[in-house]
C-alpha cells in the first residue's frame, strides 16, 4: 500500500473512531433544550459545564464508582495472583496430570459465561452471595483460563539458572515463586492486571444478574439506571457514561502497550 | 522422579484452578444438563419433565426468530469486521509515523464498556439528533430511524459492533503481517507483480491463520452477544433485535423459567461448538502457516 494512501485510510478511520466520542462529549455539555434541538448543533451553545458536577450531586454516582473500583481492583488482584500460581505450577513445577489440566483449561475457554450464568446464579444463591460483590470477585480468585495461559507462557520463557541458584541457597517453592520468578514476568502481570480490570469494570451481564440493591450497583448498571431517573435530562446520563469511561481511558493511555499485548495474547491463545 | 513434597507444592499452587474446575466448570455443565430436563421457577424444587423443554423449543417461533436475528447479525458483522481489520492492519504495517497514536485511536472503542458505547453511538444514530441523519441529508437522503427501525436495527447494531471491535482484530492482523518474511515481497517485486498481486498472493495467504482466528473469534462473539443488545435496544423494536442470548436471559431471569432457559443454553453451546469444529475443519483446507 502506498504510504500516502495508508495515511489517508488510517486518519479517516481514526476520525470515524473518535468523532462520535467528541460528539457525545459535546452532548454531555449541552443544556437539554440544546441537546434535543433539531437540526442538531455539534458544539454546545452555551457550554453547560455544571452537567458533569450535577451527576455527582443528583445521583449516587460516587457510590457506583467506589463499588466498581473495589470490585475491579479485587478481581484484577485475585486473577493475577491465582493465575500466576497456576501458570507457575504448569510451567515450572512437578505437577501431576499437567496435560489433563491444560486440556481442561482449553475446554473451559469454550464454555462462555452466558451459558454458565444460570447454574452459577443457583450456586451463588446457595452460598447466600446474591446482592453481594462476592460473585463478581471470587471467580477471578480461582484463576481464569486466559490468565493461566498468559502466565504459563511467560514462566516457560524464564531461564532455569535463577531457580537453581536460589534453591541451592535454600529457598522454598513459595520463595522461588514470589522472589525469583514473579519479578521476571512483570509485563505479563501488568497485561493481566489491566485486562482483568477492564473487563470487570465494563461488565454488564454478571452485575445485572447478581446485584439488586441501589447502593451495590456498579457504574455500568448504575449509569443505565440513570436513564429512568434523569428523564428529560439525557445530557446528564451522557455525562455520567463518559465519566465512567475516564478511569479506563487514563489506564489505557498510561499502559497502552500492555493493552495491546493482552489483546494479542487473548487472540493468539487458541 | 519428583518427590512427594514437590508434587504437593505443585498441587497447592494449582489448587485455585482445581476449585475453578469443580465450581465454575463441572458444576455448571452438570447442573445445566439436569435443569434442562426440568421445570424450575427458582422458588419450588425443580420438577422432572423429560424432553418437554426441548420439544417446546422446537415449536417456539420466538426462539427461532432470535436464532435468525443472530445469524443475520453474524453475516453482517463477521465479514465486515474481518475485511476492515485487515485493510487497517496493512495500512498500519508501513514505515509511517504516529503508529502508537493511530493505533490508540482504534483502541478507544475497544476499551469502552457497552454502556459507554450505547451513549456514544446515540450521538450518531439518534433518529432526531444523531449525526448520521445529518450526513445523509447532505446527499439528499431521507432521515432513517436506525435502532428504532425493524429493518435497520440489526445492520445498525452490526455497524456499531464493527466500530467497537475492529481495532482489536486489527492488532491481531498486524502481528501476523509483521511475521511475513520481507523477502517474499522483494521477490515478487523482482518478478514484476503489482500491489494487488502482492496483496492477493503473499499477504492474504500469509495471514490466513489469523484470518481463521478472527473469523472464529468474531463468530463466537456474535453467538454470545448479549451486552450490546441488552444495553442498546433490549431486543426492540418489537423483537427485531432479540438475539438468542437475550432471549435466554429473558426466559431465565425475567420469566423465571430456568429449566427452559437451560435448554436454550445447551442449544447455544452446541451451536458454538459446531461452529468451532467446522472452522477447525475448514482451517486445514485453506490456512497456510508460514
UniProtKB/TrEMBL annotation, chain A:
<keyword id="KW-0812">Transmembrane</keyword>
<keyword id="KW-0472">Membrane</keyword>
<keyword id="KW-0762">Sugar transport</keyword>
<feature type="transmembrane region" description="Helical">
    <location>
        <begin position="184"/>
        <end position="204"/>
    </location>
</feature>
<dbReference type="InterPro" id="IPR000515">
    <property type="entry name" value="MetI-like"/>
</dbReference>
<keyword id="KW-0813">Transport</keyword>
<keyword id="KW-1003">Cell membrane</keyword>
<dbReference type="Pfam" id="PF00528">
    <property type="entry name" value="BPD_transp_1"/>
</dbReference>
<feature type="transmembrane region" description="Helical">
    <location>
        <begin position="61"/>
        <end position="87"/>
    </location>
</feature>
<feature type="transmembrane region" description="Helical">
    <location>
        <begin position="133"/>
        <end position="151"/>
    </location>
</feature>
<feature type="transmembrane region" description="Helical">
    <location>
        <begin position="7"/>
        <end position="26"/>
    </location>
</feature>
<feature type="transmembrane region" description="Helical">
    <location>
        <begin position="99"/>
        <end position="121"/>
    </location>
</feature>
<feature type="transmembrane region" description="Helical">
    <location>
        <begin position="236"/>
        <end position="255"/>
    </location>
</feature>
<protein>
    <submittedName>
        <fullName>Multiple sugar transport system permease protein</fullName>
    </submittedName>
</protein>
<feature type="domain" description="ABC transmembrane type-1">
    <location>
        <begin position="65"/>
        <end position="255"/>
    </location>
</feature>
<comment type="similarity">
    <text>Belongs to the binding-protein-dependent transport system permease family.</text>
</comment>
<dbReference type="GO" id="GO:0055085">
    <property type="term" value="P:transmembrane transport"/>
</dbReference>
<keyword id="KW-1133">Transmembrane helix</keyword>
<dbReference type="GO" id="GO:0005886">
    <property type="term" value="C:plasma membrane"/>
</dbReference>
<dbReference type="InterPro" id="IPR035906">
    <property type="entry name" value="MetI-like_sf"/>
</dbReference>
TrEMBL record, chain B:
<keyword id="KW-1133">Transmembrane helix</keyword>
<dbReference type="InterPro" id="IPR000515">
    <property type="entry name" value="MetI-like"/>
</dbReference>
<feature type="transmembrane region" description="Helical">
    <location>
        <begin position="72"/>
        <end position="92"/>
    </location>
</feature>
<feature type="transmembrane region" description="Helical">
    <location>
        <begin position="152"/>
        <end position="181"/>
    </location>
</feature>
<feature type="transmembrane region" description="Helical">
    <location>
        <begin position="104"/>
        <end position="121"/>
    </location>
</feature>
<comment type="similarity">
    <text>Belongs to the binding-protein-dependent transport system permease family.</text>
</comment>
<feature type="domain" description="ABC transmembrane type-1">
    <location>
        <begin position="67"/>
        <end position="279"/>
    </location>
</feature>
<dbReference type="GO" id="GO:0005886">
    <property type="term" value="C:plasma membrane"/>
</dbReference>
<keyword id="KW-0472">Membrane</keyword>
<keyword id="KW-0762">Sugar transport</keyword>
<feature type="transmembrane region" description="Helical">
    <location>
        <begin position="258"/>
        <end position="282"/>
    </location>
</feature>
<feature type="transmembrane region" description="Helical">
    <location>
        <begin position="202"/>
        <end position="226"/>
    </location>
</feature>
<keyword id="KW-0812">Transmembrane</keyword>
<keyword id="KW-1003">Cell membrane</keyword>
<keyword id="KW-0813">Transport</keyword>
<dbReference type="InterPro" id="IPR035906">
    <property type="entry name" value="MetI-like_sf"/>
</dbReference>
<feature type="transmembrane region" description="Helical">
    <location>
        <begin position="12"/>
        <end position="37"/>
    </location>
</feature>
<protein>
    <submittedName>
        <fullName>Multiple sugar transport system permease protein</fullName>
    </submittedName>
</protein>
<dbReference type="Pfam" id="PF00528">
    <property type="entry name" value="BPD_transp_1"/>
</dbReference>
<dbReference type="InterPro" id="IPR051393">
    <property type="entry name" value="ABC_transporter_permease"/>
</dbReference>
<dbReference type="GO" id="GO:0055085">
    <property type="term" value="P:transmembrane transport"/>
</dbReference>
Amino acid at each position: 500500500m502506498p504510504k500516502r494512501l495508508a495515511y489517508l485510510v488510517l486518519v479517516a478511520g481514526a476520525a470515524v473512531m473518535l468523532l462520535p466520542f467528541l460528539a457525545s462529549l459535546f452532548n454531555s455539555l449541552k443544556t437539554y433544550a440544546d441537546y434535543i434541538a433539531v437540526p442538531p448543533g455539534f458544539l454546545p451553545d452555551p457550554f453547560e459545564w455544571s452537567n458533569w458536577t450535577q451527576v455527582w450531586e443528583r445521583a449516587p454516582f460516587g457510590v457506583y464508582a467506589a463499588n466498581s473500583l473495589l470490585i475491579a481492583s479485587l478481581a484484577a488482584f485475585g486473577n493475577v495472583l491465582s493465575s500466576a500460581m497456576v501458570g507457575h505450577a504448569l510451567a515450572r513445577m512437578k505437577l501431576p496430570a499437567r496435560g489433563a489440566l491444560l486440556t481442561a483449561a482449553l475446554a473451559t475457554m469454550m464454555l462462555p459465561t452466558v451459558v454458565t450464568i444460570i447454574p452459577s446464579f443457583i450456586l451463588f444463591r446457595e452460598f447466600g452471595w446474591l446482592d453481594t460483590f462476592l460473585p463478581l470477585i471470587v471467580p477471578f480468585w480461582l484463576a481464569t483460563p486466559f490468565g493461566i495461559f498468559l502466565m504459563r507462557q511467560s514462566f516457560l520463557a524464564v531461564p532455569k539458572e535463577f531457580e537453581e541458584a536460589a534453591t541451592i541457597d535454600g529457598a522454598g517453592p513459595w520463595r522461588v515463586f514470589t522472589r525469583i520468578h514473579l519479578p521476571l514476568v512483570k509485563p505479563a502481570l501488568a497485561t493481566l492486571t489491566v485486562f482483568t480490570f477492564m473487563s470487570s469494570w465494563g461488565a454488564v451481564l454478571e452485575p445485572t444478574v447478581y446485584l439488586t440493591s441501589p447502593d451495590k450497583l456498579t457504574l455500568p448498571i448504575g449509569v443505565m439506571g440513570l436513564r429512568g431517573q434523569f428523564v428529560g435530562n439525557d445530557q446528564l446520563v451522557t455525562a455520567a457514561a463518559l465519566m465512567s469511561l475516564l478511569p479506563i481511558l487514563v489506564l489505557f493511555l498510561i499502559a497502552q502497550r500492555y493493552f495491546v499485548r493482552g489483546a494479542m495474547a487473548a487472540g493468539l491463545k487458541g | 522422579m519428583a518427590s512427594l513434597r514437590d508434587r504437593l507444592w505443585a498441587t497447592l499452587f494449582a489448587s485455585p484452578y482445581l476449585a475453578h474446575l469443580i465450581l465454575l466448570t463441572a458444576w455448571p455443565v452438570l447442573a445445566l444438563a439436569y435443569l434442562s430436563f426440568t421445570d424450575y421457577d427458582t422458588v419450588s424444587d425443580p420438577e422432572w419433565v423429560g424432553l418437554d423443554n426441548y420439544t417446546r423449543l422446537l415449536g417456539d417461533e420466538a426462539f427461532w426468530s432470535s436464532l435468525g436475528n443472530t445469524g443475520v447479525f453474524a453475516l453482517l458483522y463477521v465479514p465486515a469486521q474481518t475485511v476492515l481489520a485487515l485493510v487497517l492492519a496493512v495500512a498500519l504495517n508501513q514505515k509511517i509515523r504516529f503508529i502508537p497514536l493511530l493505533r490508540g485511536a482504534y483502541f478507544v472503542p475497544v476499551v469502552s464498556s457497552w454502556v459507554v458505547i450505547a451513549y456514544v453511538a446515540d450521538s450518531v444514530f439518534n433518529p432526531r439528533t444523531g449525526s448520521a441523519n445529518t450526513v445523509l441529508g447532505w446527499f439528499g437522503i431521507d432521515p432513517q430511524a436506525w435502532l428504532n427501525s425493524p429493518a435497520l436495527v440489526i445492520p445498525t447494531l452490526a455497524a456499531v459492533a464493527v466500530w467497537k471491535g475492529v481495532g482489536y482484530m486489527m492488532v491481531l492482523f498486524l502481528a501476523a503481517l509483521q511475521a511475513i518474511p520481507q523477502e517474499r515481497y522483494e521477490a515478487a517485486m523482482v518478478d514484476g507483480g503489482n500491489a494487488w498481486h502482492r496483496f492477493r498472493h503473499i499477504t492474504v495467504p500469509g495471514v490466513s491463520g489469523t484470518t481463521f482466528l478472527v473469523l472464529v473469534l468474531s463468530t463466537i462473539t456474535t453467538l454470545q452477544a448479549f451486552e450490546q443488545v441488552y444495553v442498546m435496544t433490549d431486543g426492540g423494536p418489537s423483537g427485531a433485535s432479540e438475539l438468542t442470548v437475550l432471549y435466554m436471559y429473558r426466559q431465565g431471569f425475567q420469566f423465571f423459567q430456568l429449566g427452559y432457559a437451560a435448554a436454550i443454553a445447551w442449544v447455544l453451546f452446541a451451536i458454538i461448538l459446531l461452529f468451532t469444529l467446522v472452522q477447525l475443519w475448514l482451517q486445514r483446507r485453506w490456512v497456510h502457516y508460514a
